[in-house]
Amino acid sequence: EDCLYLNIFIPDGSPGIKGYAVIFWIHAGDFSNGAPTDIEPFQVVFKQKIIVVTFSYRLNIFGFLSTADGEAQGNFGLMDQSAALFWLKKNINHFGGDENKITIMGHSAGAISVGLHLMSEEWSKGGYSGAIMMSGNPITDKVVRNPRSFSDSLDAISILFGCNRRPTSMLLSCLRKVDAKTLATNIPPVEWGPVIDYGLSNTSAHFIKDYPRKIFIEGNFQKVPILMGVTDMEDILSLVDDIKDTKITYNDFLQAVDEISKHDLKTSVENDENCTNSQIITDAITYIYPPQNEGVDILKKFVEFHTDRMYVAPLFLMADILSKDNEVFAYLFSVRPQSKLLDLPKWVGVPKFFDQIFIWGVPYMNNSNILNEWTSSDKKISDVIMTMWANFAKSANPIISNVYVKWNSFRAENNSILIVNQNFNSELGNNMFSVRFWNNYYPNLV
């Protein structure tokens, strides 16, 4: 398949002696879909005078198939990202860019990719000067998997396409003869993604040596400035089938929590002793997140529970680890556009991707179908966000110029993060009890 292309967006005017700072954008899509065209960087490039580079990388079975051996070690999509990054570092000066000011930036799976580049040894070292991770974190559970976990999927694929399962060289030779579109549209639903490929190949360097949490805790990562954060209700639109349904009961809440705790036990337990912990876990979670009333209050508590578990706690853990060696700026995005993009109830916070509206200057885009609905407040917030992100790319300090925002860098002793709302308050982490529960207590339970 012919899919590996770069798009380089360059501002008008003179780049100066050293050249423009560069943002290297890694798109989202769960490593299975998405495209560089998912965002339009024109407003950031025009207003902030920086270069933005978007690019394609192999996805799904084409980018992340692993046979757990040297025939297909996996992580080919990540290797594509690295190839694009070093091509950029070598050639960006021809486009007016500064090869010493390249910030790798991504959202969701793109942010996870950024984190994996931070800990990659031979593939990414020296290719960038800073990193921005939005709504994604490599130390979140099950982001990186053991390649042998795909064994059943390979069995199913070999049967589906009439290929020999072993040796794996014959399986791959057979699959390569299948039309790419046929392969992409007919494979079983498999969540292909990053794997630990250490020791799988004698001819190619590994990309991921071990589980990210272990690697980061041991301090084996690139020491560069970091900007990272999440929205306050990341998965609300996929988590709740009908956000207008306020008939949810406390028993519904308990059932959902119990199912999640049993799933965590099933996937992490090493012996049968912890299998009795299910009720203990449910009791602990409901103690931390006690709904006061049925209906909306329970919905909010369930979303809070999920967001803390999957996003906020990993954010604080990652920021704590990185801040020992790096300047880290952490944020929680809590402001929604005033324009009615979706008919969302007032209690709903900021869903996943809604922060991207401000980061890419969507309120200023002339081709928007809701152009007339963007308010001056939406534009003002977008201006501040674009300026801070561009400042970080230029100087590693998001508030160095043209903004009047106090944003303290993260330190373990203060847990300070920027609350991105109408007032842009830099506050202490106000939910540290639940963060400590997920990062310190919960892993011991499961």
TrEMBL record:
E.C. number: 3.1.1.-
Segments forming a coiled coil: none
Key word rRNA processing present: no
A molecular function GO annotation: carboxylic ester hydrolase activity
Database matches in PROSITE patterns: CARBOXYLESTERASE_B_1, CARBOXYLESTERASE_B_2
First-tier enzyme category under EC: hydrolase
Keyword Disulfide bond annotated: yes
UniProt keywords, alphabetically: Disulfide bond, Glycoprotein, Hydrolase, Serine esterase, Signal
Domain Carboxylesterase type B as annotated: residue spans: 1-426
Family: Belongs to the type-B carboxylesterase/lipase family.
Protein name in UniProt: Carboxylic ester hydrolase
Protein species of origin: Ceratitis capitata
